[in-house]
Design brief:
By secondary structure, this protein is mostly helical. It has one domain. The protein is about 70% helix and about 0% strand. The protein has 4 helices and no strands. It has helices at about 1-30, 40-45, 60-65, 70-90. Helix 1 (about 1-30) runs antiparallel to helix 4. The longest helix has 29 residues, at about 1-30. It is flat, with a radius of gyration of 16 Å. It starts with a helix and ends in a 7-residue tail after the last helix.
Amino acid sequence: MRGLIVITGIDAAVAGLAVAVHQAILWRQSGYWPTIPFSDLWFALGGAAPDMLRLHGVEGIMAQLLDQPLCVVLFLGGACVAWIGAERARRPWTGI
């Protein structure tokens, strides 16, 4: 299970790098950097609008997250998931 978490995190980080490379190729072709916000992926996957979340300030955090570039969110999120999975794998004595 821990290996699956690490692989999923690495896959998300690589997807973030792939989005950045795709944007760079489009930038070289057209001359301007095409911004792809995280909200495009969020709403395409059926995510709820931030104003629908009523949990003590979560809607503000989510609204700011949706405005961030997709490549950054995927890379940092994937790197964090892979790091957490790798740290859990280094502690076999916890029994989890």
